[in-house]
Design a protein that fits this description.
single chain; 335 residues; alpha/beta; Rossmann fold; 2 domains; nine-stranded mixed β-sheet; 13 helices; 38% helix; 18% strand; disordered N terminus
């Protein structure tokens, strides 16, 4: 390090992603297109690309920086355009895939946790999904005649808030609830961070490895997973933000490519293109330091998007968790 340079905590400026699919796309070229211990398959269904990714051992886990387990990703570029018919199809496919992803007995109790801060729009996805769920656990005890015809599971939902508001770690709140009601499955819904702007507002990830609240924006908390809670945990997330480091890094790469294309052999291309990874990070640090660390960026239409995608997820969850509810019925519970 040169004299006078500020010592940098690179963990604050690393280009990270919550999406296993993006991690695979980043690291697979370094391994000839196939990462050891990782299997993937992809299919196209009426405007929706579904990718199934399985990290089978610690070798693949270490390479990708993701936990061993199964990841299901829905890529839907059309979600940006507020298409009600597409939203309905996505909800239907999400429900169908979730049923296969999580095989539950008919009487299984499910606890849905809506992670995030409802007062911060890009982070309000989890609480909004909980607002639109058809919760039934109380009905089995207090109004059994409403569910005795069958087709309903005991479902509870809670949005525990964030540490800065409650003063309590989310994991502590969830652990207490799980200990009390003893669900068979926990589904944690949270907003994620993506590496690519193209993923924001267009991607849904489902994973059976649980989740670490706040990890996407650098606020790592104790994880919610089977080991910590004692029950299986499925994480459902949608990227709503991209960190400024990613945007800056990608912009530099695009600038180099464009300059070389328009003016081959120009001096700026040689200068920037000649930076090694450390020098590139040093430049990004110097550019972003005045703006503060952990700067996250979200599209201006995030208000509408978060409401729409929360309805899509809630509709899909309602149909997946209750056999008696159709997609037409599900829309009655969302607003």
């Amino acid at each position: 390090m040169h004299a006078g340079q500020t010592e940098i905590d690179w963990n604050s400026y690393s280009v990270n992603t919550d999406l296993a699919l993006e991690a695979h796309q980043i690291f697979s070229p370094q391994h000839g297109g196939s990462i050891p211990g990782v299997k993937t398959s992809t299919e196209e269904l009426d405007g929706v690309t579904i990718t199934r990714l399985s990290i089978e051992d610690e070798v693949g886990s270490k390479i990708m920086g993701k936990m061993v387990g199964n990841y299901l990703t829905f890529e839907v570029p059309g979600l940006r355009y507020k298409d009600p018919d597409l939203q309905k199809r996505v909800a239907e496919q999400f429900a169908e895939e979730l049923k296969k992803f999580v095989a539950l007995p008919e009487d299984a109790t499910v606890l849905v946790i809506g992670l995030g801060n409802r007062k911060v729009t890009p982070d309000s996805l989890g609480p909004l999904v909980c607002d639109n769920l058809f919760v039934t656990r109380h009905l089995f005890d207090h109004m059994p005649e409403l569910v005795e015809q069958g087709g309903y599971r005991p479902v509870a939902a809670v949005a525990p808030g964030v540490l800065g508001i409650t003063g309590i770690e989310t994991s502590e709140i969830v652990h207490g609830i799980v200990k009390k009601i003893k669900p068979d499955l926990v589904i944690a819904v949270d907003a994620l961070a993506a590496r690519s702007l193209e993923r924001v507002n267009t991607t849904i990830q489902v994973a059976d490895v649980g989740i670490s609240p706040g990890a996407g924006v650098g606020n790592k908390r104790k994880g919610l997973n089977k080991k910590s809670l004692g029950v299986p945990v499925v994480a459902v997330g949608v990227p709503t933000v991209v960190d400024a480091v990613t945007i800056t890094s990608d912009a530099m790469d695009l600038l180099v490519q464009r300059l070389e294309q328009d003016v081959p052999g120009n001096g700026m291309t040689k200068l920037i293109g000649g930076f090694d990874e450390g020098e590139k990070k040093q430049l990004i640090f110097e550019l972003l330091q005045p703006l503060g660390q952990n700067l996250m960026v979200t599209p201006k239409e995030v208000d509408t998007f978060v409401e729409d995608i929360a309805n899509v997820l809630a509709n899909g969850l309602n149909v997946a968790l209750h056999d008696a509810i159709t997609m037409e019925d599900a829309s009655l519970f969302t607003h």
